[in-house]
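Exam revision sheet. Question 4 asks you to relate a sequence to its structure. Input first:
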Amino acid sequence: MFSTKLNPGWRTGSIILTGISLSIGWGIRGNFGHEYGAEFAGCLAAITAALLSGREDWRNRIPYIALFGALGWGFGASQSYMQVLAYTESGHALSQWYGYMAVFFIGFMWVALGTAGTVFAAVAPKDRLVKIFKPFLFIIGASIVLNLIEDPVAHWLQKGIQFDGTWSRHKNPLYWFDAYYLPAFFALLGSGIYDLYDRRGIKDRFYLPAFAIGGALTGWLFQLMLRTLGLESGFASALTYSQGDPTYLNPATGKPAFDPANFLNNWPQWFGDYPQHIGWVIGLVLGITAYFIIYGKFRNGSSLFVYMAGGWLISFLALPVLGSLFFAQYGGIRMTPPRSDDWSGILGVFIGTSIWMWKNKLQPVAVASLIGGIIGGLGFSGIQWIKHLMLSFGSPRILAYKGILPGSEEFNTITAAWARWQGQNWHSFLEQSYGFVNGIAVAVALAFIASRVKIQTDPVEFSDQTKGRWTRAFSVLIILLGLTYFNVVKNVDVWSSQLNQSIWTKTITHANGATEVAPAQWDFPYIGRIPGIDFLSMTPESWFTFTWLLLTAACILIVIRHYRSPLPIIPKSSLAKGQLIFLILLWIMVTANFERALTGWHPSRLLTEWVIIVNAIIATVLVLILPREQETIVIKEEENLKPIYRKLWKKAIAVLIVSGILFVVTNRMIYHYPDPDKLNNGSQSHTRFGPDASWRTKPNLKNAEEHR
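Answer key, structure tokens:
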């Protein structure tokens, strides 16, 4: 280990501040949710770790480190984890152990990919880093296209069927294990289009239609052959399993609880609606895939996106889709049935990313990813364990398990004394504490790599900071305006639902007498009030977006002006620029988070919003006083990281096994759970195994109004 005096990243203050930064972001992520919330948290920690690294080359790359760090952290947010947390509290021993193992896995993947994105931007050669932005723009373009066409295509496929994007999403014809397979597919599509663009002028580009048509024709003929031979139904059945247990009996009636025909299966919904088109569609996809395998070059880093998206799809197909055929009696190879199976895709992204990094001589990224993953996995499962231990004080469950029954004087006395303790926002404790551990993971991973990777020197063509500098401006704008917009715009829905309904919404009565609540239309000031002009009005969300676009346009003009002639307000040093980006990003999101909570304020929010604001004040002070303009760091470049990587994998497996056993044993010692046959008393929410496993008792059904 290097001396902390010679490696600023190992200083106690550096580790604590990075932990606080991600804790703030994770607490806010808990309110805003999903990928964009996690991206903010990871972005903030990535900036902090780079500022405190003592490496001028990393500080100079803060826009890139922040952007790619954010993107890496966004992947893990697609994983469903509330149900595995419930497993750890279920009292069913096997499900509890499995729950701790699954929580470790989710935490591992989340931090591993977040750390990989952060370190990739720090250690990749500058020319490679700048060039990857071109294919990245194609990926963004493909994502925009997907967002524009997904709902119209789904409605076209199933006209007349109403489905909601959230609770009734399983009725969407494009639904498939509640997973994000379409973004992965469109990422491959964007990479393919970029490859065609990059190879323009090469004749083999014109072979693509032949491969596509040939693949579609082959697939159609194969399906026709199966149908003609009477094998189509058997072939389909061999590759299909139901997402439910047809033998499960309703405890009240003793009869089968569900109609087997009402179960979802392991293929996209449209397969059942349009089975006659399956052959040629799959053939088309395979034909296009074959073309790019043979002729694709995927230069300028676009191959990274291919490895990531391809890994997602391959792992998804191999595990929950096809692998589950052999384990249907156990609910399949699914982590949280009937919830999302994005975990399998994220595993594929991790594997694909790791392989690509080793093949492209970026081994430090793979090593740092593994370091972060180990700490993150232990952090998530460990904080859940600590939360549950703290909840044991005055726990009504423990009292009941000990025979102190609800309604008794002793039960009422004890529970009343601990009521406020039990009523704390413990999920927020989990979010912010786990966020702090994630920040430590980032700090440790970057500090470990900082002393083992040589200082990056930019190629001659990039030394004047003019070539490719648009990528820096693009990164900063995406961080400060793009990332914040996709989080803050969610506040409009909160305001609309909790503020004056007559201002924010309007009720529309249709011809058949049905009513619908829709967003209000607000007039454009002055012009929209002129008689005869009734078209200059927008919904609250449109007004918000329009205003944000004006701000974005203003910032773009400022950047253009700054590149022509530097503006005094923009500092010259990399350290000062990084600090400015950090503070702007931090306080935009802290303010937006407080605005979100204010409309429905309750004293219990102090554990979240007040703690976040206090931590933000501390982070503001520390980020300005801890980094030093001139730092000394001793570099001892590692020639071979493979031995370290192998040892880390051994440690990861050992930590997973030991922590899982420790957590479940101590939990059961404290809670005194009764025998399994006495657990069904209403306190048991979810179990993964056993005759009353959640996938058996609470499956998603085709005709259900809500997705579980």
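Marking note for examiners. The two ends are 48 Å apart (CA to CA).
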